[in-house]
What we know:
Number of helices: 6
CATH architecture: 3-Layer(aba) Sandwich
Largest sheet: 6 strands, antiparallel
Distance between the termini: 27 Å
Strand content: 25-35%
Structural class: alpha+beta
CATH class: Alpha Beta
Shape: globular
Number of domains: 1
CATH superfamily: Transcriptional regulator MraZ domain
Helix content: 25-40%
Amino acid sequence: MLTGSYFNTVDSKGRAFVPTKLRYGLEERVWLAIGLDACIYVMAQDKWNDFLAEYITPLSLKDGAGRKLQRQILGNSREVEIDGHGRINIPPDYLAYAGIEKDIVFVGVGDRIELWDKKAYDVEMDPKTLNLSALILEVANHNEL
């Protein structure tokens, strides 16, 4: 299970070191995809396959929103290599999507890693505005449906 938050930087070539503790849950090659929030997902092959099987491939061609979601996720996903130095090369369009310029946060979220621009992550997870009790109730109510 991938857990923890780690701060790093992206170099001028779009490379960032994957924290050692997160690399243990990955293989030499990983999948990058745009995230549902302003982040980038990083997944091992088996988790990528699980994600596709649960959320993307079952969508019907009859459903316009489903087709758009498939295009967005599959059309914006790439397999990349973790190099011998433990770095991944993040393509410029992914960096732009997530608003990442220099400072980056690697967040272990169970079956995936999320890459965030540090400033955006700080806003998203600001303890002054993040209400965990309300989030738990919202998730619980959603899962009861």
